[in-house]
Amino acid sequence: MQGKYKVHEVMERNIIVASKQNSILYCSKVMAKNKIGCVVIVEEHRVVGIITEQDILRKVVACELDPKHTCVEKVMSRNIVFVESLIELQSAIQLMGNNQIKHLPVIDNGELVGLVTSKDIVAIEPLLIEYLKFNNSVDRNNFEC
User: Fold this and answer.
1) Distance between CA atoms of 116 and 106, rounded to whole angstroms?
2) Which end of the chain has fewer beta carbons closer than 10 Å to its terminal beta carbon, N or C?
3) Would the pLDDT of 111 be above 80?
């Protein structure tokens, strides 16, 4: 696999973004309509967070928050792990596995240019699923209701 693909060759370029002031309900509807698992949160053309299906399940539904009146800022993941488009896909896969993430924003020169997901990786090389196994000892957000 080493050297076979670069991130820019497999990333999704049409990224759905939202504002941190948007409601969880709004983002959920956007995800459902577009059949995607996350929305990247952007403020003044800068990535400031990401909201995923898991965030909604664990931080909204499980905590019994009202998705209509809960803004994204309250539950989005803020510590964004990202890659640049020219790195080797193998490095991106290792980063995803080490950080227990399924969605990896691609940022070049401070600008969001794409998104790599575990589904993108498995679609091009099914055997790479092994590299995406997550280390369960990582505490992603230390979030409590």
Assistant:
1) 7
2) C
3) yes
User: In this structure, are residues 19 and 41 in contact, taking their beta carbons and an 8 Å threshold?
Assistant: yes
With CA atoms as reference, report the closest residue to 16 among 37, 40, 46: 40
How many residues belong to the chain?
145
- Per residue in 11-23, pLDDT (tens digit) is 999 999 999 999 9
pLDDT tens digit string along 25-37?
A: 999 999 999 999 9
The pLDDT value recorded for residue 136 is 45
Domain boundaries, the chain: 7-132
Close Cβ partners of 140 (under 8 Å, ≥ 6 residues apart): 77, 99, 100, 101
Integer CA distances (angstroms), 17 to 1, 21, 36, 38, in order: 31, 12, 11, 9
